[in-house]
C-alpha cells in the first residue's frame, strides 16, 4: 500500500485542504474580534467557528504529516515533521512546513490553556499564526506538486484555491490593521 | 452553593460574548460593558464556565 | 480636556495644635524633639499590637474606616509581610496627611516601624504625594534622620485623585503604573508580589505610633468609650487657607467650622463625600458611625464650607467634571459613566431637561457605575451627586425653574 501513489495523493489533498482550513481559521480569527456586539453573527458563533476550524486544521495537519512520512516514495522521517532542519527531501521547503507545524502546535497548546495563561502572553503567541500561515504558503509553493508549473499549460490547478487563500488573508490583514486605531478609540465610549 | 461572576474591569473591553453566552446572568450597559444581575446557581454553572472560556480578554472569574 | 479641581491642592496650610497627634507641634518636627517628648519607641509583638489597636478600636483614616486590627491580623498570617505608609493624599481638599508630614512625621514612622517589627517585615514603604512638594520633602528628611532596623523605601505617587487608592499604591510599589486594578483578595492577605501588605493611611500610622509610645490608657482617655481617641479634620473654605484640626471623637463638629459656614450647607468627606444641611451639621458630633447615620460619612475628615453665595449645584458640577477627568480610564463603566453623569449634572445646573428628568437620569447612571470598576472612584462620585439630591432637593428644582436657591438665599 505504501508503495503505490495513494498516500502521495492523500498527502497532496490534505495539503490543499489544510491551506484552505488555515486560511478560513485566520480570516475568522480577524472577523471574530473587535467591533460592537450584535453586528452580523453573534460573537460567540464566530468564535466557535474559529476554534472549530482551527481544530479541523490540526486534524488535517496530522493527516498531512502522517501521509508524508508513511509514504516511502520520498524519504521523510518522523522527526523531520518536528525538527525544521536536516531533511534530505526538499530540505528548505519541508523545513518551512515543519516550522509552520511547530508554530501551530505552540499556538494550539497555548489556546487550550488560554484561561490559565496571562492574556498578553497568550496573545503574543497567537499572533504567530500569521507567520505560520505565510510559512505554509511558501511551503506549498515550494514543495506542492499541484502548484508546480505544468510544461506548456501554465501553473498547476491548485494555484486557483491558493490564490483565493492569499487574497483572503491579505484582505483580512489589511482589515485588521485598519481597525487598530478604531478599536482603541471605541473604548472612549459611545453608546452602541 | 451559589457562586458569583466577577469582572476584571481593566481587562474587559465590552466584547459582549459573556452576554451572548449567559444572558440570564449578564446584561449589557449603555456602553456594552457587563452588568452581573444575579448569582450563579448550580444549574447555570456550566454555562457560566463557558462564558469565562468565551471571554476573549480573560476578564471573567467565578468566585465563591 | 480634564477639568481642573475646583478646590486646588493648597500651597499653604495651617496646622493647629491638638491634644495628641498635633501636641507639641511648636517644638518642631525633628527626631530629637519627638524623642524628647515620647522617649524611644518600645518594640511590640504582633499580639500586643493587635490587642492595643483592637482595644482602642482603631479605624483606618484613609476614608473607609476599616478596623485596623483586622488588617493587622490578616497581614500577620502570611509570609514576608510588607508595611506601607500611604501619604499620597490624592484628595485635593484634604491636608491632614501633609500636616502630619510637616509637623509630626516621626509619629507616623514610629507607628509603621512598630508594626514592621511586630510582623517581622523588613521593608517599610512610604508613598509620598506627587503634588505636595513641601510635605514630601519633610517626610523624606524625617526618614533620613532615622536609624531603625527596617529599610525605608520611598515612592512618589502620581498627582491624580486615584493615586492613593490601595491597589493603585501596590501597583506603584510593584513598578507598574500608579493606577487601580481589581483586587481578587484584600491586600493585607495578598498585596505586593502576593505578599501580605499592611497598607494604611499616614494618620492611621500616627495613631498606631501614639498607642505604642504613650500607651492605651492615655489614648483611650480621650474621645468616647465606644469611640476612643482623636481624629484629624481638614476644614476648607473659599479664600481661606485650609486648617487642619485635631478633635476628640464626640466633639461638636460646628466648633471647628469658620463663622462663614454658619447657616449654609457643607460638603463632608471631600469629593467623594456628602452634602449636609446646616441643621444636620449644627448638632452633629464628630463620630464615624454617628455621622454615617446622619447621611454625611466622615470619610477622610474633609469639611468643605462653600460659604454664602456659592451654589452647591454649581460646585458639585465642577467637582464631578473634575472627577470624571480623573478616572484612570481602565474600566469602561467609569470611563463612560462619569462623563455621562457630569453631563447630566451640568444639564441640571442649566435647567435643561427638567428637574424630574435630571433626577431620574442621575439615579440611573449612579446605579450603573456603582461597584462596576476596579476601585470606588465611580461609587464615590455617585455618592456625591446623590447626596446633593437627598440633602438639597430644592437646588435642582430651583435650577429647573431657572433660579438658584443659593443666590436667592444670599440676596435675601
Protein described:
The complex is a heterotrimer of chains A (192), B (64) and C (412). Chain A is an all-alpha fold and 192 residues long. The model of chain A has no long low-confidence stretch (mean pLDDT 88). Chain A is built from six helices and two strands; from the N terminus they run αααααββα. In chain A, strands 1-2 form a two-stranded antiparallel ribbon. The N and C termini of chain B lie close together (8 Å). Chain B contains two helices and four strands. Chain B has a two-stranded antiparallel sheet. Chain B has a two-stranded antiparallel ribbon with strand order 2-3. Helices cover 23% and strands 22% of the residues of chain B. Chain C is of the alpha/beta class and 412 residues long. Chain C has a six-stranded mixed sheet with strand order 1-7-6-10-8-9. Chain C has a four-stranded parallel sheet with strand order 4-3-2-5, sandwiched between helices. Chain C is globular. Classes of the chains: A mainly alpha (192), B alpha+beta (64), C alpha/beta (412). Chains in contact: A-B, A-C, B-C. Chains B and C meet through loops of B and α12 of C.
Amino acid at each position: 500500500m505504501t508503495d503505490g501513489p495513494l498516500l502521495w495523493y492523500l498527502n497532496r489533498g490534505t495539503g490543499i485542504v489544510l491551506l484552505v482550513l488555515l486560511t478560513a481559521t485566520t480570516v475568522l480569527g480577524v472577523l471574530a474580534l473587535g467591533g460592537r456586539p450584535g453586528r452580523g453573527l453573534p460573537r460567540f458563533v464566530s468564535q466557535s467557528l474559529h476554534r472549530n476550524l482551527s481544530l479541523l486544521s490540526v486534524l488535517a495537519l496530522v493527516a498531512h504529516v502522517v501521509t508524508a512520512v508513511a509514504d516511502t516514495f520520498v524519504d521523510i522521517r518522523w522527526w523531520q515533521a518536528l525538527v525544521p532542519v536536516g531533511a534530505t527531501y526538499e530540505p528548505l521547503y519541508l523545513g518551512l512546513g515543519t516550522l509552520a507545524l511547530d508554530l501551530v502546535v505552540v499556538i494550539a497548546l497555548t489556546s487550550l490553556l488560554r484561561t490559565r495563561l496571562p492574556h498578553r502572553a497568550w496573545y503574543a503567541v497567537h499572533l504567530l499564526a500569521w507567520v505560520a500561515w505565510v510559512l505554509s504558503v511558501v511551503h506549498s509553493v515550494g514543495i506542492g506538486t499541484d502548484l508546480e508549473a505544468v510544461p506548456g499549460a501554465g501553473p498547476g490547478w491548485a494555484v486557483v484555491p491558493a490564490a483565493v487563500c492569499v487574497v483572503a488573508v491579505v484582505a483580512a490583514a489589511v482589515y485588521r490593521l485598519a481597525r487598530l486605531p478604531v478599536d482603541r478609540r471605541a473604548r472612549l465610549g459611545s453608546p452602541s | 452553593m451559589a457562586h458569583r461572576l466577577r469582572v476584571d474591569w481593566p481587562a474587559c473591553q465590552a466584547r459582549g460574548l459573556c452576554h451572548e453566552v449567559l444572558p440570564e446572568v449578564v446584561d449589557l450597559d449603555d456602553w456594552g460593558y457587563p452588568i452581573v444581575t444575579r448569582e450563579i446557581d448550580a444549574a447555570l454553572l456550566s454555562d457560566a464556565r463557558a462564558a469565562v472560556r468565551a471571554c476573549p480578554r480573560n476578564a471573567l472569574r467565578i468566585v465563591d | 480636556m480634564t477639568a481642573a479641581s475646583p478646590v486646588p491642592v493648597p500651597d499653604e496650610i495651617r496646622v493647629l495644635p491638638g491634644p495628641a497627634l498635633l501636641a507639641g507641634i511648636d517644638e518642631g518636627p525633628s527626631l530629637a524633639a519627638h524623642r524628647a517628648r515620647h522617649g524611644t519607641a518600645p518594640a511590640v509583638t504582633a499580639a500586643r499590637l493587635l490587642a492595643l489597636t483592637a482595644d482602642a478600636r482603631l479605624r483606618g483614616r484613609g476614608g473607609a474606616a476599616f478596623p485596623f486590627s483586622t488588617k493587622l491580623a490578616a497581614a500577620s498570617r502570611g509570609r514576608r509581610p510588607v508595611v506601607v505608609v500611604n501619604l499620597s493624599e490624592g484628595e485635593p481638599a484634604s491636608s491632614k496627611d501633609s500636616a502630619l508630614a510637616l509637623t509630626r512625621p516621626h509619629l507616623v514612622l514610629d507607628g509603621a516601624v512598630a508594626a514592621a517589627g511586630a510582623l517581622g517585615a523588613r521593608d517599610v514603604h512610604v508613598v509620598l504625594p506627587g503634588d505636595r512638594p513641601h510635605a514630601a520633602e519633610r517626610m523624606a528628611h524625617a526618614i533620613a534622620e532615622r536609624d531603625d532596623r527596617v529599610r525605608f523605601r520611598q515612592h512618589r505617587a502620581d498627582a491624580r485623585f486615584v493615586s492613593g487608592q490601595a491597589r493603585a499604591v501596590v501597583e506603584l510599589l510593584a513598578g507598574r503604573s500608579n493606577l487601580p486594578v481589581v483586587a481578587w483578595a484584600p491586600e493585607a492577605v495578598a498585596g505586593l508580589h502576593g505578599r501580605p501588605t499592611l497598607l494604611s493611611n499616614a494618620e492611621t500610622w500616627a495613631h498606631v505610633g501614639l498607642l505604642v509610645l504613650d500607651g492605651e490608657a492615655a489614648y483611650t482617655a480621650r474621645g468616647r468609650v465606644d469611640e476612643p481617641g482623636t481624629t484629624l479634620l481638614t476644614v476648607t473654605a473659599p479664600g481661606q487657607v485650609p486648617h487642619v484640626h485635631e478633635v476628640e471623637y464626640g466633639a461638636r463638629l460646628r466648633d471647628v467650622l469658620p463663622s462663614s459656614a454658619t447657616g449654609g450647607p457643607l460638603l463632608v468627606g471631600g469629593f467623594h463625600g456628602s452634602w449636609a444641611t446646616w441643621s444636620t451639621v449644627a448638632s452633629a458630633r464628630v463620630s464615624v458611625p454617628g455621622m454615617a447615620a446622619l447621611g454625611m460619612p466622615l470619610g477622610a475628615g474633609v469639611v468643605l464650607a462653600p460659604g454664602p453665595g456659592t451654589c452647591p449645584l454649581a460646585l458639585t458640577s465642577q467637582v464631578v467634571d473634575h472627577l470624571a477627568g480623573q478616572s484612570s480610564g481602565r474600566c469602561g463603566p467609569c470611563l463612560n459613566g462619569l462623563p455621562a453623569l457630569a453631563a447630566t449634572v451640568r444639564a441640571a445646573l442649566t435647567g435643561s431637561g427638567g428637574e424630574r428628568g435630571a433626577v431620574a437620569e442621575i439615579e440611573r447612571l449612579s446605579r450603573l457605575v456603582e461597584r462596576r470598576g476596579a476601585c470606588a472612584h465611580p461609587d464615590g462620585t455617585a455618592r456625591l451627586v446623590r447626596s446633593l439630591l437627598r440633602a438639597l432637593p430644592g437646588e435642582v428644582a430651583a435650577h429647573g425653574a431657572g433660579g438658584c436657591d443659593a443666590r436667592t438665599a444670599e440676596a435675601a
